[in-house]
Every structure is written in structure tokens, then in C-alpha cells.
Hints:
The structure holds 2 protein chains of 2 kinds. Helices cover 46% and strands 14% of the residues of chain A. By secondary structure, chain A is of the alpha/beta class. In chain A, strands 1-2-3-4-5-6-7-8 form an 8-stranded parallel beta barrel, surrounded by 6 helices. By secondary structure, chain B is of the alpha/beta class. In chain B, the strands form 3 sheets. A 6-stranded mixed sheet of chain B has the order 3-4-14-9-10-13, sandwiched between helices. In chain B, strand 9 (226-231), helix 12 and strand 10 (251-259) form a beta-alpha-beta unit. The interface between A and B is large, with 40 and 37 residues.
Amino acid sequence: MSRINEAFKDKKAFIPFITCGDPDIETTRALVNEMVKNGADLVELGIPFSDPTAEGPTIQGANLRALSGGINKEKIFNMVKALREEDNITIPLVFMTYANVVFSYDADKFFKTCQEIGIDGVILPDLPYEEKGEFKEISEKYGVDLISLIAPTSANRIAMIAKEAKGFIYIVSSLGVTGTRTSITTDVASIVKVVKENTDVPCAIGFGISTPEQAKTMSLCADGVIVGSAIVKIIAQHGKASVDPVGEFVHNMKTAIN
Amino acid sequence: MSENNGRFGIHGGQYIPETLMNAVIELEEAYNHYKNDPEFQQELTELLNNYGNRPSGLYYAKKLTRELGGAKIYLKREDLNHTGAHKINNVLGQALLAKKMGKTRLIAETGAGQHGVATATAAALLDMECVVFMGEEDTKRQALNVYRMKLLGADVIPVTTGTATLKDAVSEAMREWTSRIDDTHYCLGSVMGPHPFPIIVRDFQAVISKEIKEQILKAEGRLPDAVIACVGGGSNAIGSFYNFIEDKDVRLIGCEAAGRGIDTFETAATINTGKLGIFHGMKSYFCQDDEGQIAPVYSISAGLDYPGVGPEHAYLHDIGRAEYVPVTDDEAVEAFEFLSRTEGIIPAIESSHAVAYAMKLAPTMDKDKIIVITISGRGDKDVAAIARYRGENIYE
């Protein structure tokens, strides 16, 4: 059983997302530590990309801030290493980035590095089922889970995707890009039902979740919830001083779902 | 997926969010159905001919030929199409297809504004809603086209993210499509993006080379020695090349926007300076840095100011079937002025890149050789910008 599976064992997993290097890599490291202290069960670490086509304005902004601050993959890899070796972070960590970031680095080298530094999974929103072949064997060779996404429009594709899923399944709650929403109208429970008929891999819901109430509602029909933009907004507002308010936010969300 | 799984060699594919997968699958199925439907084809042909003003002429540029003193030069006059560019060929096809699919709303990206104007035009004609995404930088460079789109009833959304140019307009149109799919067709303007767009757009633009072939055979009784077109995403070029790909003796030459030169960072010459990558739904060549971040490209021409190139061009480059040459801003502006003076034809600054390379090539060829240059669009939209380039401060 992979470390990712452990995160969902006997509890609803709370999965925060932050963009590495926003506002700087030292703060990213402190944020991960604080989020873990406050109950994060798995952390999604965004590797910035110049043109994040699946992101709304909030996370686009984080990508640009991080890139203009001079972030690069080497600094991110070193930070993850420090989290594992010096800070003794043991929960699963996954990267969220775009296919070109992996491809341009050389996919074999990228997944090998993930294994070496202790990354458990990789989420690539621009790599649908049809294109997974590009990285599937390589990721498996290094024991890193290539996370599958299921969207409100997936319909007849849900079973096919679920059957081959590894680590956990990222269920996209709403149409559109990432960002907070006042309401989530997709019938997520029906999607989860089809997923469960086809796999034992846990599923977490993301996109648009920003309040403890939303998190609670969503957690009732899945194994975990993912929150990105709401946290990135706090970071955008407080910068280097965002560690405490983010910790408090994570604490409240975690309490709401369990 | 059909046609080699949407691949051209190693290029192409469908690198898009899961949210859009069923939309592109539905589009492919609809396209495969209608492309073999005689009624659809007849309807499209009538629109292209009676509304779009096809076939466009193949004009023997006698004075240009004489001035350059080498190969005989013909101009394929896509600038004479309705809306002033080749973009209408693709848009009429896609809008009609979208209408048949039950869509009521078209969204599009635009660089120079020509594709946006064409989409707004088709939307007006076919009673569809239209939203065009345009980089804020380009809305300034091409203010006239912005007003033109509004006049036609479209909403124009200035995109302020990234470099605020064509690349960002494509990203924003893709984001919009993921949020509203049911009633909306993304009318992509070039032979790029995820499968099936590169094939659909190529097929609708292939009318250019189909006509060139018929017209040159009639005029000269033989095929040309070279076909030259400008390449941004590459739609007028692939349209100009497509029916000549099997005719190995016809040189196919794509002219990329080198901006201030391919040895500078201010360039948009993707095949000449980029490397293999994955972006905007496709695997192809992209201008990017060592970290895989897409580069902020530059060209005087808003329509060629794009960091990628269509996957079929990347493939034609790989197999050596087509050549891709860089043309600088300076060369393009000189060609813009030269063609205006010699033939009384003001070409779009995009098309001027193709004219510029022909001006270098023609004198090196014998007088019995034939070159066809595709004039992809008319240059009226560029006049004010060229005047400013020459230091004359006129505004539209």
C-alpha cells in the first residue's frame, strides 16, 4: 500500500494546495510544516508554470509571483528534501504542475528525482487519460503515482479512468478553472458512486471549496477534500506572514470534515 | 481518435484538461460525420463562394517579377476574401459545423484581430453569440479590428495576463471553454491546439492549395517550383501547402516571424529557435526557457506573435518536406512597402513576411521558374502601425 493510501485511512483527508516559491521558498517550507501541524493529511505542491491554463486568477497570480521571484525546480526539489530529511515530514506529498514542466526536464529524470526526494504522486491537469502513456511507465518505474482527474463532464469516461487510477482520484467539482465558488452544483455523489464501483483507490474533491461548510458537505460524499485558491488567497494577502493564518485555516477545515 | 491518433509523427495529441475531453471527442465525431455529408459540403461551398468571395484569384505579379529579375511570381489573393484574410475559410466551416452540433455561442482567440473579425462575421451571419479574447497589447496595436468586431455584435475581452498577446488570448479562450461547454464551440483560428483542431482547420484551409493547383495548371500548364507562406500557428501556410505535399518537386517554404532577429530574445520564430514541448493541447515546437517556461515572444506582427507552431508544420519540418525560414521585422516592413509600390497591393504585415522571403529567393532562380506567394490578408489594418514604425505619428 502506498503512502498516499495511508492518508485516507480511517478518516476524511484534508489536502491543501500551495504554489512553491510564493512568496519565497523558505515560506513554502514553513507553510508545509504549519499545515501538517494543523492536520493536513497530504499536501499538494504546485511547481509554477508560465501559462497555467487550468487555473483561475488566484493561482495564476501565485505562479507569476513565484516565477518572478526566481523559483526553479532545483530550489523546489531541495526544499522537499529538507522537508523529508530535516523537518521529518512523513505525510504524502504530491506535485501539481503542467506536462511541459515534466517533459522539458526529461520525464525519466523528473520521476526519478521525485522518488529520491520523497514525492509520492504527480498531478498534471493537461494530461488526460488518452495521453497518460507519455509518462505512465516511467512514473511506475519509480513508484510515483500519476494522479487521474475526473470532471463533471467525464460521464461515460469515469469507469475507464477509475479502473486505471493510482494513488487517489482528483474529482473536479465544477466546470471551469480553479478558484473559489459560492456554490457547487455538480452531482458529485453520483460521480463518486461510479468511481467506487470501479476501484478501491480513494477519491478527493477539489475546485471551488473555500469554507468549512463546503468542505464538510463535500467530505460527506468522498474520501477527502482539496483546497487551493482559498489558501493561496491568504498567502497573497499576508505574504511571508501567512504561516499563522494558513495554519488556522487548515485547522478549521480539518475540524469541519472530521 | 482517428488519423494516427491525432498525431503528426511525434507531434499533436490532446494535452487538455479532462473537463474538455468529451467536448473534443464530440467535435471529432461531428466533424467526421459532416465532412462526408454532401449537404453540409454544398452549404459550405455556397457560403465560401457567394459570401466569402471564393475562389480567390491567382494573380501574376508582372511588375514584381520584373523588379526582382528572377522567377515568375504569382500571388494567391486571400486578401480579397470577405473580411480581408484567409481566416474566413476556416471560420465559415467551423461555425456551420458548430451550428449543426446545436451550439449557439462561438468563442475565439485573436492576435491581429483577423480571426476575431472573421468569427464575429460568421456569428452575425448565422445568428450566434460571439465572444473574442484578445491580448490587451494587441487591442492597442489593432484598435480598428477591435471596433470592427464590436460593430459585428461580438464581445471583445482584453486579456491582461502574461504577455497580453495571442498566447494569452488562447489560454483565456481555453479557460472560458472549460467553464461553458454545452452551448459553446471554441472556434480555434489556427492549425494548433488539441486534436481534432489541427485537422479540422487544415481541411477548411486546404481550399487555398486546391485552388492554387487548378489555377497554376491553367495558367502555366505545370506546378510551381515553390509555394511561400507566413507561419504563426500556421493555418494559411498549411492551407497553401497541403495539396502540394505529395508533389515532391514543389518547395514548401514557411516564413516565421524573427522579430528583431533569431539571435535575440525578441523573436517568435518557433521552428528556428524553439524546442519540443507540450502546450496549448499539443506536442510541438515551442519557444521556451530551460525550465520549460513558455517564452515571451515578440514580432511586429500580432498575428505571428505566438510561441508555438501547429503540429503538422513541426512534422513537415522533421521529415524535411517543408523549409521554415526566419524573416525579421525590418525585412517584413520593407516588403510591405515594396509590394504596395510595385503592384498596388498592400499586404498584411503577416503576409509581408512571405513576400520578404520571396524577394530574397526570386532573384536566385531562373526566369522560367515559378513562385507562388500566399497573400494571407490585406494590410489596411497595419497601415497606422507601419507609419509609426517609420516614425510618422498617425493614429487610427
